[in-house]
Amino acid sequence: MSDTTPSDTSDTADAADTADAAGPAGPAVLDVWCELQCPDCHSALDDIRALRARYGDRLDIRLRHFPLEKHQHAFAAAQAAEEAFEQGKGWPYVEAVLARTERLAAQGERMLVETAAELGLDAEEFDTALVDGRHMLIVDADQAEGKAIGVTGTPTYVIGEERLDGGKSQEGLRERIEEIADRLLAR
After folding, report:
1. Are 33 and 66 spatial neighbours (Cβ–Cβ below 8 Å)?
2. What is the CA radius of gyration of the chain?
3. Are 180 and 160 in contact (CB under 8 A)?
4. What 3-state class would DSSP assign to 162?
5. Model-level pTM greater than 0.90?
6. Selected residue with higher pLDDT from 131 and 24
7. What is the DSSP string of 100-152?
8. DSSP conformation class of 58
9. How far apart are CA 23 and CA 70, in angstroms?
């Protein structure tokens, strides 16, 4: 989604020229295609934390939803994560849910709402969001985009137009992401 309207395109072009002259226009982007009931995504959290610590604001780590049919509560968890981002605690919520994948499998939406309350989020709003489905379109769009670019499992990373499949093995992926991020940030 763009914040640019037709009336301000000349300002945008000037800003882009200035950014090119000054260096990189913004952070490198790492899309993490994730499913919140996935044990492999839980295992990937250490790499995500290490990348966040190494790059800070220079690497924009974006959660992308790819709920798998084999996990009954994955779609609801993705919607709940979107509500957490809306309430300002997206990543802490994602990490808390991924730390409880077995509990999510057993308790479903009740666990999602309880986790929100534990983090000081508006649990009633979470419950309402899960009932009214206000975040379904975001989750559906992420999943459709993931399928379109060849995502078949989670976690899958996309950085610099390279797709890295972490569902088979996390081994060496953080190092590969760092190589690509360093190259992108050096431009």
Report:
1. yes
2. 18
3. yes
4. strand
5. no
6. 131
7. THHHHHHHTHHHHHHHHHHTT--HHHHHHHHHHTTTHHHHHHHHHHHHHTT--
8. G
9. 45
Largest CA distance in the chain: 54
Q: Is the pLDDT of residue 7 over 70?
A: no
- The size of the chain, in residues, is 187
Distance from C-alpha of 79 to C-alpha of 135, rounded to nearest angstrom? 5
Whole-number Cα distances in Å, 3 to 6, 7, 29, 78, 147: 10, 11, 18, 25, 26
pLDDT tens for residues 140-174?
999 999 999 999 999 999 999 899 988 777 788 89
Contacts of residue 69, Cβ cutoff 8 Å, sequence gap at least 6 = none
Instruction: Determine the Cα–Cα distance for residues 6 and 36; give it in Å rounded to an integer.
Output: 38
Beta strands in the chain (DSSP E): 28-34, 59-65, 156-159, 162-165
Q: What's the token pair of residue 121?
A: 């989020």
| 172 DSSP 8-state letter | T
Separation in Å, CA 56 to CA 53, 69, 126: 6, 33, 29
